[in-house]
Amino acid sequence: MAALFTGKVLVANREQDELDTERELCRALENKVLLLYFGSGQCPRCRRFAPLLKDFFLRLTDEFYVERASQLVLVYVSRDETEEQQSAFLRSMPKRWLAVPFGDAFGRELELRFAVSEVPAVVVLKPNGEVIVGNAVEEIRSMGPACFQNWQEAAELVDRNFLLAKDFDNWSRRSITDPIRRLKYKLDKKMEAKSKERKEEGED
Question: Could you tell me which residue ranges the Thioredoxin domain spans (predicted)?
């Protein structure tokens, strides 16, 4: 995947770090499903879709929802009118997002390469750069995180260790005790299972 970005620069969200060496890009992109999100913080359709995409990404990569972050990386390709608009939009999005620097001609190259004519658009790519889905906006809207498993299989990733923590879907994220409650929840479930096994053995 890094080959697609050879000689290019990606910016880490809300940090000054730039991933511009082949080694850095490989570490960030290798063996992962890549989402190229073409959008704008000012576009009404994008404003409606962006919260869904944010939630989709967090449910696959945030430790609150998953045991282990999925092999997923997202690069924002901006159609914002100013750098300030792009920065403001990215500040409201997950820290793990990467972005093509504002005004970089590479953004336009990507639009042409993947035939992006309107936004929002989400192009899903294999680690080798092959297209899995030309525009996954509707798929993300209708299926949510479940569609990642299809992409993961299509991408034939080396490590298939993926777990969607459905048990935590309806939990509040506001309490700092959530990680502790999650652990207690798991332990309680194990205790229940063992207790049930003992009862069944006793009945036999």
Answer: 1-142
pLDDT digits (tens, 9 = 90+) for 37-66: 999 999 999 999 999 999 999 999 998 888
Question: CB within 8 A of 142, min separation 6: which ones?
Answer: none
| Residues 71 and 152 sit within 8 Å (Cβ to Cβ) | yes
Backbone angles phi, psi at 28, to 5 degrees: -75, -30
Sheet of 121-125: strand order equals: 18-19, 10-12, 98-99, 72-78, 33-39, 121-125, 131-133
pLDDT in the model for residue 27: 79
Give CA 2 to chain center in angstroms: 17
C-alpha–C-alpha distance, residues 138 and 82, integer Å:
28
Taking 50 as the pLDDT cut, the residues of the chain under it are: 160-186
Q: Is 67 left (phi over 0), alpha (psi -120 to 50) or beta?
A: alpha
**CB neighbour class for 52 (10 Å; exposed up to 12, middle 13-18, buried from 19):** middle
What pLDDT, on a 0 to 100 scale, did the predictor assign at position 193? 64
Q: What is the pLDDT of residue 75?
A: 96
